[in-house]
């Protein structure tokens, strides 16, 4: 199975883009009807490196990676 992380590394992708836009008829309604934003985050390091382990059943630890070059 190909995961998001494997795809990011295979294609050397570094940006995570998330869009949000108000839509009429959705409940609960947006606080404003004119919301239209896109947030772009760098995801090549930090907690996006996917070094995770289950330390107890249901409890996971995620290690962040921060290099000088990035």
Describe this structure in words.
The structure is a single chain. The protein is mainly beta and 70 residues long. It has one domain (4-65). It is built from one helix and four strands; from the N terminus they run H-E-E-E-E. The protein has one helix at 4-10, and strands at 15-21, 36-42, 46-56, 59-65. It has a two-stranded antiparallel ribbon. Strand 3 (46-56) and strand 4 form a beta hairpin. The two termini are 29 Å apart. The mean pLDDT is 79.
Short description:
This protein has one helix at 4-10; strands at 15-21, 36-42, 46-56, 59-65.
Average pLDDT confidence is 79
Count of beta strands: 4
- How do the SSEs run, as a string of H and E? HEEEE
Q: Helix fraction?
A: 10-25%
What is the molecular shape? extended
Give the quaternary arrangement of the chains.
Answer: single chain
Largest sheet: 2 strands, antiparallel
Tally of helical segments: 1
As laid out across the biggest beta sheet, the strand order is: 1-2
Domain unit count: 1
Q: What class do helices, strands and sheet pairing give? A: mainly beta
Specify Rg, calculated over alpha carbons: 17 Å
In whole angstroms, the N-to-C terminal distance is: 29 Å
Uncertain parts: none
Beta percentage is: over 45%
